[in-house]
Amino acid sequence: MINQKNMQLGKVRSVIRELFEYGKKRKEEVGEENVYDFSLGNPSVPAPKEVEEELKNLITETNPVILHGYTSAQGDFNVRKTVSNYINKRFNTALTPDCIYMTCGAAASLTITLNALLNDGDEVITFAPYFPEYKVFVEHAGGTLIPVQSEQNTFQIDFEKLNKALTPKTKAIIINSPNNPSGVVYEKESVKKLCKTLAEYSQKSGTEIYLISDEPYRELVFDKQTEVPYIMNYYKNSVVCYSYSKSLSLPGERIGYIAVNNEQENWQDIYAAICGAGRALGYVCAPNLFQQLVARVIDKTADISVYKQNRDLLVSALTEYGYEVVKPDGAFYLFVKALEPNADAFSERAKKLNLLLVSGNSFGVEGYVRISYCVSTDMIKRSLPAFLQLAQSYKN
What is the pTM of this model? Predict the structure, then answer.
């Protein structure tokens, strides 16, 4: 008999992907301009011009046998050196190339890290709302995901609930800031308190707790005064999982990295376990062409001003229509309170107006929907009458 769990995962897509596929069919039926698809977090702004320029340079100037050949399993040494040097310069760390493992995007970074750290029966805490695939990744690594509800209205960390969730089985905490789906950035004092809480509990229980920072949206912050704390500056037992999918608008190229904090006592063993997990999962030698590319454009970011414009437009309009919105500091998502307790039913009613909004139930928080606003500003403007009609349908 084949693996039933994996068969089920293959047959039943995530809620996000299911809605996205529905949207494609609906566009064929009524016309693309009449469907307002806010389902998928697919960047809508082009990559920086330097990306295209450097790709051309790499292809025309580099020996193709080398450019399209294998690198070391953990990634090209010079690329890893460029990445570690960039992190050190930006965040005042002291990483070496042997702290960096190049990966096929954030999903590979997370799955490799979790398989490196977890033993069967270990627990991993994350804060709701959270990216639904965390549960899939953690369970595949033999662990159990423990969602902890965040503070109402702000979606900052609720420390009273966290303290109740910590047990001797807790092996890791996953944080995601800026957050998918809320766009919330964890405040510096909150991050410092989290690190202090984990350090104190680890000392009391005699167990190591690792802090995994999932950072595909780090660069997508709209206000200069908003700081995204770098976790290695506050907690030794930490690992950063990074992706260039959003910062460089390269989601289909699947390129990112894992950075292991070399201030923790056994960091070489953790790095070795990451190399071993990458080997066991088949994630060795991330695409060479895009390893070389990101090293050349490492300090570039796509133009996120469009996302800020979209955020402000939606927040202003939806608030005027009577929706409750937590204004996001980053990423490109709005987490909006549904106009009825059942978010699935609310999402279904929205579909009748061709508004494709993802129910928040799959993110671990009931009564909300996620709006992915990495879409054209024109589509947002065209969708506003439908949002108003949806709100009025509840008033009537």
Answer: 0.96
